Amino acid sequence: MAQSRSTAGQGLHVAIIMDGNGRWAQARGLPRVFGHVAGARAVRRCVRTAGALGLRTLTLFAFSSANWMRPAPEVDALCALMTRHLREEQARLRAAGVRLEVIGRRDRLPGELLEAIEEAERQTSTGTQLCLRLAIDYSSRESILGAARRFHVETARGGAPAGFGRLLATGAEDVDLLIRTGGEQRLSDFLLWECAWAELHFTRVAWPDFGARELRRALRSFAARERRFGALPEKGSAA
């Protein structure tokens, strides 16, 4: 059935591929890590705006499973930055009613980062205003493959398996709007199942420069679209 949304973002699930940190820094003659530091500030701005706009869920792609292939110093700096950011932000998130969840693998994460994740999740577990999900060491293909294995095991045991989507490590909550910053136009193995019917918004704005204005612009673009989910256009609308 065709569906339209308001510009407010009320009740939406927005996912963002936060791209362009390294290029942002290099364009300013700075080491790439400075772009990641600036990107952490953009996360804070985006979460604050998402709460004000009434989003239900905000999922941010923080670290791909493929990112382990980057130079070790950059990976170490990223892990240290995520650890510090989680520790610094948990009180602010809790005060704002934000519940933090981290999706992705945890067995390869440094101990300090894993501890920071678990503590932040505990401290914000009662939040009801916004669900903030960070994808860390995340691969959508791995998630789908793992769900298929679990589905097969449950079926082989003769049980009544849960719906396939619910077996995904992400919880399989459908994405309404996927945003990618930094000028690239690809999904990069992010929430492939959940984005089956998502609207896509690509912007050349690098993640460190992304803020309230850019998020509102993406939501206005989303609101102007007619979501048909394979159905015919509503009567009176353009084909």
Structure report:
By secondary structure, the protein is α/β, with parallel strands linked by helices. It has one domain (13-139, 175-223): Undecaprenyl pyrophosphate synthetase (3-Layer(aba) Sandwich). It is 40% helix and 15% strand. The chain has 6 helices and 6 strands. The chain has a 6-stranded parallel beta sheet with strand order 3-4-2-1-5-6, with helices on both faces. Helix 4 (111-123) links the parallel strand 3 (98-103) and strand 4 (130-138). Helix 1 packs across helix 2 (32-53), helix 2 (32-53) runs parallel beside helix 3 and helix 3 (72-95) packs parallel to helix 4. The longest helix is centred in the middle third of the chain and has 24 residues, at 72-95. The chain is globular, with a radius of gyration of 18 Å. The protein starts with 12 loop residues before the first strand and ends in a 16-residue tail after the last helix.
State the domain count.
Answer: 1
E-strand count: 6
Q: In percent terms, what proportion of residues is strand?
A: 15-25%
Name the structural class: alpha/beta
Q: How are helices and strands ordered from N to C?
A: EHHEHEHEHEEH
- CATH structural fold name: Undecaprenyl pyrophosphate synthetase
Principal-axis shape equals globular
Number of helices: 6
Helix content: 25-40%
Strand order of the largest sheet: 3-4-2-1-5-6
Tell me the CATH architecture.
3-Layer(aba) Sandwich
What is the CATH class designation?
A: Alpha Beta
Radius of gyration in whole Å, from Cα?
Answer: 18 Å
CATH superfamily: Decaprenyl diphosphate synthase-like
